[in-house]
Amino acid sequence: MSVLVVGSVALDSVETPLGSVNGVLGGSAVYFATAASLYTKVNLVAVAGTDFPTEHIQFLAGRGVDTAGLEVIEGKTFRWAGHYDFERNITETLKTELNVFADFHPTLPPGYRDSDLVFLANIDPELQCEVLEQVSGASLKVVDTMNFWIRGKGELLSRAISAVDIAIMDESEARLLAQSQNTFAAARSILNMGPKTVIIKRGQYGAVMLSGDDHFIAPAYPVYDFKDPTGAGDSFAGGFLGYLDQVNEFTPQMLRQAVIHGTAVASFTISEFSIDGLRSLTRADIEKRYYELQRCTHFEDKECNL
User: Fold this and answer.
1) What is the pLDDT at residue 306?
2) N or C: which end of the chain has fewer CB within 10 A?
3) Is 5 helix (H, G, I), strand (E, B) or coil?
4) What is the mean pLDDT of residues 124-134?
5) Bridge partner residues of 20 (DSSP)
6) What are the domain boundaries of the chain?
7) CB 234, CB 31: distance < 8 Å
């Protein structure tokens, strides 16, 4: 079994009320792969410049991530700088330098097309469609996106969403895409576009999953040492798909358990800057939070006596 991720590797600079970092390891493919590698083999497709530190590639390889699909070409690596205002719940992009990522077209090495599960991170939907044509035999195809693509390439994004099994996005993105202020109505509208399942990420309020007529509402893990939300959504997806690839079952029950695994993994991501919350993470750590979340949401199945 294996998971293919197509996304970005980046060098991030982040400011939050609890500190700042400059030029640290980031990118959707990196967060996803670091999380998913705790469960299964990960095939990574992305592009980096010649300024991308070798130790970052060595770190990924050390986690069992296959980096044959990571192109390193002449130029600078994609860089992003952002500021988080926790009090007003605002994320401000200070700078985006696409660099070599501007001309990125995913090239899948031999064997990658046979990956069992595929995660298309929030890259240009035109590229997502290109990859989907190459992995038609995958057991499960999942797409993520962002406001920029919803506003700029909505038609192509709709085509990508219609061709996958699961669509994942955050609450504001879902509402924008569906033109609805109601989260559940937005999820239902996206479900009608073609995917079998829609997952809406709600940050500190957890996640909502719709599959047909089945609704699942998961809380966020209560984190008291919250530092940096960067990469939380991608590490959620990594835990979610990594678990599904491990169990090789896509039943409603397994999807629910996968959401809790993703939630648990993301709770470690936000406790440190960059991927530092994931570097020494173990399956035992995840399992502990999985059961804590189970206890938090449990109530006795008895008659409702009003």
Assistant:
1) 67
2) C
3) strand
4) 94
5) 15
6) 2-297
7) yes
- What does the pLDDT average to over 229-237? 97
Amino acid identity, position 281 = L
Instruction: Take residue 102 and report the two structure tokens written for it.
Output: 């501007």
CB 11 within 8 A of CB 77: yes
CATH for 2-297, options being 3.90.950.20, 3.40.1190.20, 3.30.360.10, 3.30.70.260:
3.40.1190.20
0.85 cut: is pTM over it?
A: yes
Residue where the block lists tokens 């995913």: 106
Rounded Cα distance, 147 and 100, in Å: 22
303: pLDDT confidence band, cut at 50, 70 and 90? confident
Amino acid at 260: I
